[in-house]
Amino acid sequence: MNNDEAKFVLRAYRPGGGDAGDPALAAALEQAKKDPALAAWFEREQAHAAIVATKLRLIAPPAGLRDAILAGARAGTAAGRRRHGWRRPAWLAMAAAMAVLFSVAAWWRLAPVGGASFEEFAVNFVDRGFRLQKHSADISELEAWLAEKRGPLPAALPAELAALRALGCRTLEFRGREVSLVCFERDGKEFHVFVARREVLADTADTAGPRFHGHGKLVAGAWSDARNHYVVVSDADLPTLQRLL
Questions:
Q1: Cα distances (angstroms) measured from residue 98 to each of 91, 101, 102
Q2: What residues does CATH 3.30.200.100 cover in the chain?
Q3: Hey, which residues does 174 pair with through a beta bridge?
Q4: Cβ proximity of 239 and 167 under 8 Å
Q5: DSSP for 1-42?
Q6: If we measure between CA atoms, which residue out of 141, 159, 157, 160 comes closest to residue 193?
Q7: Confidence grade of residue 79 (pLDDT, cut at 50, 70, 90)
Q8: Among 107-121, 151-165, 207-221, 229-243, where is mean pLDDT lowest?
Q9: N or C, which end of the chain is more exposed by having fewer CB within 10 Å?
Q10: Distance between CA 168 and CA 135 in Å, rounded?
Q11: Is residue 139 classed as helix, strand or coil in its secondary structure?
C-alpha cells in the first residue's frame, strides 16, 4: 500500500479512535506509523474531522424528525396510499438543508487554508477554527514535542508573551513546508504564535520590530529574527497585543 492508497482509506477513519481496531483500516494505519509525512497528514485530517464533528453536534434536529423518517420508510411499502407527514414541503426543505450542511462541512474540512502571505495564512487558520495536537502549560514540553515533529522552534519569544499561560501547540503546512503554532491565553483571550523558518519564506520581508494589522475581529503582529518569521494572531484588541510585543 502506498501513501495515496492509505490516504484514500484513512479518510474514512472517524475522529476519537473508535476505528482503531477496524481490520479494513489496519494496513493504512500501519503505513501511517511507518511514514512521518503520512502520519502528519493523518493528524491534520483527524483535527479537521474533530472540529466538523463538534460543529455538527451543535445542530438540533426538529422535534419529530426521527418519527417522520421512519414513517416515510414504512410508507415505501404502500406508496401512493396516503400522503405522509415526511412528504410535506417543510420536511423536504429540512432534508435538503441538512444535505447542504453536510456538503459544506465536507468542503470545509478538505479545503486547504489559503493566504497570499504568512500573516494572511495565519489569520485565516485561526478564523476557521482548529484543534491543538499537544496540550501542556509547560513551554519546554511543547518545544520538545515540536522538535520531535520537526517543526520550527522559536528562537526567543518576547518576555511578556512568553509569560502568558501556555495552552498547547501543533504543526501545520504553509506552502508545503512545516510551520509551528504555539498558543497562549490571558483573561479569556487567546494568542496564537505561528513560526516559520526563514528559508521557507524567502520572499517575506524582514520585520525587525513588530508591525500590526487588524483583520476583522482578529488582530495580528509580525516580526522576524535571524532564524524565523513570526506572526501572532489574537482575539484581543490591538493595544493589548502591542503591549505584549
A1: 11, 5, 6
A2: 118-244
A3: 177
A4: no
A5: --HHHHHHHHTTPPTTSTTTT-HHHHHHHHHHHH-HHHHHHH
A6: 157
A7: low
A8: 107-121
A9: N
A10: 4
A11: helix
The helix-helix angle for 36-57 and 3-10 (nearest 10°) equals 20
Non-local (6+) Cβ contacts of 138 within 8 A are 166
Is the CATH number of domain 118-244 3.30.200.100?
yes
pLDDT at 84: 52
pLDDT surpasses 90 at 179: yes
Residue labelled with grid coordinates 493504512: 28
The C-alpha atoms of residue 34 and residue 42 are separated, in whole angstroms, by 12
- What cell does 22 get? 477496524
Mean pLDDT throughout 88-104? 50
* Model confidence band, residue 78 (pLDDT cutoffs 50, 70, 90): low
Chain mean position to CA 49: 8
Asked if residue 219 lies in contact with residue 213, where contact means CB atoms within 8 angstroms, the answer is: yes
